[in-house]
Design a protein that fits this description.
The protein has 260 residues and is α/β, with parallel strands linked by helices. Helix content is 46%, strand content 15%. The protein has eight helices and seven strands. The protein has helices at 19-30, 44-52, 67-81, 104-131, 152-172, 196-203, 214-225, 243-256; strands spanning 10-14, 34-39, 56-61, 86-89, 135-140, 177-184, 236-239. The longest helix is centred in the middle third of the chain and has 28 residues, at 104-131. The structure holds nicotinamide-adenine-dinucleotide. Nicotinamide-adenine-dinucleotide (NAD) binds next to α1. This is SDR family oxidoreductase.
């Protein structure tokens, strides 16, 4: 294997207008991919920024909860490029609400965006990826899809996405399409807006004592898209500063001060 890392020629990033999705998009474009940035928000400013920096990108209007919008975006990509080698199902929302405080409409909206969206997306892109000779799908779950997180809508949607990734990985292997999930811990984006007390308290359980940088999440996602992970499918990469594996005892030891 050469030292050079190769990325798909065309990659679709949902929720790419802001937050982590924008960072994945900028980085992929800087490494030579054409990035199709799809969002309910306007991504034209980011597309212009990428193009003026010498990269290649296009803006696509997409509500991930709408299967017909997915079909339109895939048609746009097929007409413009004739191929698709990567999909990052990144669009997501989080309302930090405990069980009895979760209204039914928030439950439904969270499931629709965070879980139904990636299902519709994988279904929509699979034929074009198959025609393109295969590809890689990276679903952005969360550590809330690996532990019992206090907010049921978010946690259930992300656990669902963890399982959906593994199920699709088995089905899609015959077409040369790999499917994996990335599980970020805390990352300082708009998604955590207004939650500074929650973040400060959570960081006490993070062995690394800090949030992730955008680069730290993007590198895990891009590894899974790249030709450095060609035998990796149906698995999880957790990028959380040790929170899931060691957060409990990190906090216990920090609070007791010593072991005996
Ligand atoms: N920030 C964190 O600490 C954290 C931790 C773990 C997992 N995540 C996950 O990472 C992903 C990205 O989160 P972020 O922190 O960058 O969030 P963000 O709020 O900064 O960005 C989310 C993007 O998704 C878009 N979006 C929302 N609803 C959409 C829809 N229906 N259709 C298309 N686009 C839509 C928004 O317009 C926005 O551009 C999410 O799936 C989130 O659950 C975030």
């Amino acid at each position: 294997m050469s030292d050079r890392t190769n990325y798909p020629g065309v990659v679709l990033v949902t929720g790419g207008a802001g937050g982590m999705g924008a960072h994945h998009s900028r980085t992929l474009a800087a490494r030579g991919s054409h990035v199709c940035i799809a969002d309910v928000a306007d991504s034209s400013a980011l597309v212009e920024e990428i193009i003026s920096g010498g990269g290649s990108a296009s803006a696509h209007s997409l509500d991930v909860t709408d299967p017909s919008a997915w079909a339109r975006v895939v048609d746009e990509i097929r007409s413009a490029h004739g191929e698709l080698g990567g999909l990052i199902n990144n669009a997501g929302i989080s309302r930090r609400l405990e069980f009895m405080d979760t209204p039914d409409d928030i439950w439904e909206l969270t499931m629709k965006i965070n879980l139904f969206g990636p299902f519709y997306g994988m279904k929509a892109v699979a034929p074009l990826m198959q025609e393109s000779g295969g590809g890689s799908i990276v679903n952005i779950s969360s550590i809330a899809g690996q532990v019992g997180y206090f907010s049921p809508a978010y946690s259930s949607s992300k656990w669902g996405l963890t399982g959906l990734s593994k199920s699709a990985a088995g089905n899609f292997a015959q077409w040369g399409i790999r499917v994996n999930s990335v599980h970020p811990g805390l990352v300082g984006t708009d998604l955590l807006g207004g939650a500074s007390d929650f973040v400060a308290a959570s960081l006490k359980s993070v062995p690394f004592g800090r949030m992730a940088t955008l680069d730290e999440i993007t590198e895990a996602v891009l590894f899974l898209l790249s030709d450095k992970s060609t035998y990796t499918s149906g698995t999880e990469i957790t990028v959380d500063g040790g929170l899931v594996s060691n957060g409990l005892y990190h906090r216990i030891i920090a609070e007791t001060g010593e072991l005996s």
